[in-house]
Design brief:
The chain is an all-alpha fold. The chain contains 8 helices and no strands. It folds into 2 domains: 59 residues, Glutamyl-tRNA Synthetase, domain 2 (Orthogonal Bundle); 85 residues, no CATH class. Helix 1 crosses helix 3.
């Protein structure tokens, strides 16, 4: 989101508050003073930038979030056929998906199971999740 990126970039060499990093554009504009800008070189921290962006995504109302994801839910970005997309399903799941993405382009990975005929197989994730003895895992799961 532009707001998330601007929020992060504004904090590279400038600080508003010691106790938080997430600010609205109005707060950034109101607090900005060129005299407070630090001349030290800044280092880009991708994880912090993504965190700030994710927080800005969560601050959106659901309708705005739903609309902002639109380009990624349609061809050529979506991994499903255009006719497979169901706007009603998307609208129902959007509030939950909003809590899971850090950048808007993450949305297809979070909702693809709704619109694909076959699930995407991610061998690395499967291997990580299935560590240990699968028979023992299933036996334990069935016992509980």
């Amino acid at each position: 989101l532009p707001e998330g990126l601007l929020n992060y970039l504004s904090l590279l060499g400038w600080s508003i508050a010691e106790d938080r990093d997430i600010f609205s554009m109005d707060e950034l504009i109101a607090a900005f003073d060129i005299e407070d800008v630090n001349a030290n070189p800044a280092r880009f921290d991708l994880k912090k930038a993504e965190h700030i962006n994710a927080e800005h995504i969560r601050m959106l109302d659901v309708k705005t979030f739903t609309e902002a994801c639109g380009p990624w839910l349609k061809a050529p970005f979506a991994p499903w056929a255009p006719e497979a997309f169901d706007a009603e399903k998307w609208t129902r799941i959007a509030p939950y998906a909003q809590t899971r993405v850090t950048v808007l382009s993450d949305i297809t990975d979070n909702v693809d199971f709704l619109f694909l005929d076959e699930p995407v197989e991610d061998e690395a994730s499967w291997t990580k999740a299935m560590k240990g003895d699968p028979v023992a895992l299933l036996t334990t799961a069935r016992a509980n």
